[in-house]
Amino acid sequence: MKKQPNSGWIVLCMVILILFLLVWQLLGGKTGGLPGPIPVAKSAWFFLSDPFYNNGPNDQGIGWLTMYSLARLATGFLLGTLFGVIMGVILGLNPVLFKALNPYIQVLRAISPVAWMPLLLYSVQNSGVTAVLVVFMASVWPTLANTAFGVSNIKKDYINIANILQMNPVVKVFKIILPAAGPTIVAGLKISMGSAWVAIVPAEALLGTLGLGYFVWNEWNNLSLTSVIFAVLVIGVVGVILDYLFTRLAMRLAYVD
Amino acid sequence: MSLLEVKGVSKYFTTPETGKEFCVFKNVHLSVDEKEFVSVLGHSGCGKSTLLNIIAGIDSASDGYAFWDGKEIGGPGLDRMVVFQNFALMPWLSVHGNIRLAVKSAFPQHSRHEINKRVQKYIDMVGLTGVENRKPAMLSGGMRQRVGLARAFSVEPRVLLLDEPFAQIDALTRGSIQEELIRIWLSTGITVFMVTHDVDEAILLSDRIMLMTPGPEAQIKDEINVNIPRPRDRSTIIEHPMYYSIRNKIIRFLSTKAVNRKELSLVA
Fold first, then answer.
1. CA distances from B125 to A224, B149, B232 (A)
2. Fewer Cβ atoms within 10 Å of its own Cβ: the N or the C terminal residue of chain B?
3. Distance from CA of A247 to the nearest CA of B (A)
4. In this predicted complex, what is the ipTM?
């Protein structure tokens, strides 16, 4: 009885998976229906057995496609993080400015990053750059809002110590402000990463830039639903791995007051 | 001129709900000479911590002047290190990291080796050898304040400002840290300004004790010289003939002022 809560969830988790596959098998595979689990598994095997093949610009292995998406994600996310953290620190340290800009931030935050796409595409005239900018728009707001919130709530004691020690502003930011607000900032980065990964799929699909989102749409156009389902699973798994990385980072930066 | 002079300092706060001005303390005068250990003793809420923060330069006076080394205080500085009641350690840094942060700020020209040597020296001085790599959360209250003291001494300030430094430490540990503070103070010979509400602590540590009336409009109304020779020991100091007369005088001041502030302020 005592040990059950610890290991019981794994059993339950597996039971749910098996039930899901069974229901899927029973419902799928019929004419006009979705492909069942077995053709999808076959398709997955096909893609995973040679993930890094390259047959020209429109036919590349799933490994490459994932890499393209991740590279795009990393570029947009890093830009968004840089801008979000810098602006967040500035707003966090200037309560009046924070209050004045907060309504705009809330509005911008509520806009789906994909909605910006036509304007961005029109402005930069380049689909690759546009995709990166969509990721930027998806990842900048949660980071900015969380950083500003974290910085504005730093304990006065820490700032007092920094002032008594006569730290210059740069040292103060890196030695006191960022570590003190670190856990809140990383919580924002985690949300940002999640929304960036969500946004990249429709961005790639609509812009036709090579990546997982493009792959999903391309396979739909080929009417290959097994490939679509496989791609959906890959997107989910990569998303979970990214989220896990930020959970680890959050654990490293957490502190007990 | 004394090292530290406070002349006619008052502090007002505005109550957010009513918008009314509230006077914490009014027209406070005090002076501290080099190498003195001076305490301000008063009830909670009399504004003694605010007074200390004004001297530290992390708060400002509403009225009056505070001079440090002949110059008016305009902000904080490494020559006036504060030891806070709630320790104010960086929770994400180890014991070593916390002290190192202060040492690096005070001695930016030092090499890495010199900095580490100095950090270790002060860790050893407060008896924290062996727990250098622990985070504050892994330390007892007494140990945390040892870090606070080590950090304060490590920058070699001219004055140490102690803001009820032992209030959050259990009574048994408090005594040993107080004795350690005296030992370090005697060996370094720096000036100490302390605020406290603990009568025995004030007598044990101070050369001079200033007595503050309760707020609002608190004032320093009396001053007592503690003419008990050093080194003092918390177990033998109570046997000194002066001890109880000093203690009774303080207790009488604090208890009667609390009951009827207005009436007694005429007498004092």
1. 74, 10, 20
2. N
3. 18
4. 0.89
